[in-house]
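Bumping my old thread because nobody answered last time. Still need a sequence for this structure:
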């Protein structure tokens, strides 16, 4: 997946004529990214972090800030050769078969088509294992809204707030039998607590738990880690030192979106991401 994306990115990056021709063909076109997930997972913050601008309202409460399904058109710069539109559809967080969830379900069913679906879970919530019952119920709920084939082809699982994970939270989340344990850690009766180790363990757990819970068709859903950018009152990213790997997380997630989107939409996202990479990435705090 990543290899295909990288090859096309290089073709666009090193060939000015191709880049201009693609941008010209995409001017005025649009692609759509839909966000769903558990309440308080940081869906709105994730969009702002990816786009490096405050597109969606955010808050610090564990409750969902977004109260209804909202579509926000965002201009994407095509590397200085025009713009196309990224339609960001933000939705209220899933709570658990409440009246609010039923209303959200009806609104999501009325959306029609989309290019990428980002399903967001908070990877640092109470230091819990992934996937939790809450995560599994969210996916089951999505199955009642969208066809399985659509979910399998368009959905990406995003573990948000990776830059907020603390050592004491990471340790209990790792399985006791994890192959990530090294001899030194075992001898000291401790567990590896790096975010990278946590992420790898999450991938293994997804395969095991999804099969056990009747979600075997979603075992291979791509899973990405993401940090969240904090913004100042003037809507610009705060200046701070990013944690190791945070920029790579964003790059991988962008590549995942490119891979999931249709041909035309993926090229638009690709050019926009290339344009962003030529500017300051911003900071993750």
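Sorry it took so long. Here it is:
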């Amino acid at each position: 997946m990543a290899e295909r994306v990288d090859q096309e990115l290089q073709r666009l990056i090193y060939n000015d004529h191709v880049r201009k021709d693609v941008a010209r063909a995409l001017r005025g076109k649009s692609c759509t990214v839909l966000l769903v997930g558990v309440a308080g997972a940081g869906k709105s913050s994730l969009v702002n972090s990816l786009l490096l601008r405050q597109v969606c309202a955010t808050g610090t409460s564990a409750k969902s800030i977004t109260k209804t399904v909202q579509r926000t058109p965002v201009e994407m710069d095509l590397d200085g050769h025009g713009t196309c539109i990224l339609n960001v559809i933000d939705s209220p967080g899933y709570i658990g078969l409440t009246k609010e969830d039923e209303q959200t379900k009806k609104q999501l069913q009325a959306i029609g088509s989309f290019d990428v679906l980002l399903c967001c879970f908070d990877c640092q919530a109470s230091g819990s294992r992934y996937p939790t019952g809450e995560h599994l119920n969210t996916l089951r709920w999505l199955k009642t809204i969208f066809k399985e084939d659509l979910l399998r082809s368009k959905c990406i699982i995003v573990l948000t707030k990776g830059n907020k994970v603390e050592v004491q939270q990471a340790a209990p989340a790792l399985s006791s039998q994890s192959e990530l344990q090294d001899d030194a850690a075992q001898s000291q009766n401790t567990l590896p607590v790096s975010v990278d180790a946590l992420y790898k363990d999450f991938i293994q757990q997804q395969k095991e738990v999804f099969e056990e819970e009747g979600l075997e068709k979603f075992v291979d859903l791509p899973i990405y880690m993401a940090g969240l950018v904090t913004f100042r009152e003037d809507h610009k990213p705060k200046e701070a030192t990013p944690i190791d790997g945070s920029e790579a997380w964003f790059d991988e997630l962008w590549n995942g979106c490119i891979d999931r989107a249709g041909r035309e939409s993926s090229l638009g996202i690709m050019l926009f991401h290339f344009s962003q990479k030529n500017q300051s990435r911003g900071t993750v705090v």
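The beta strands are 30-37, 70-77, 83-90, 116-122, 155-160, 223-225. Let me know if any region looks off to you.
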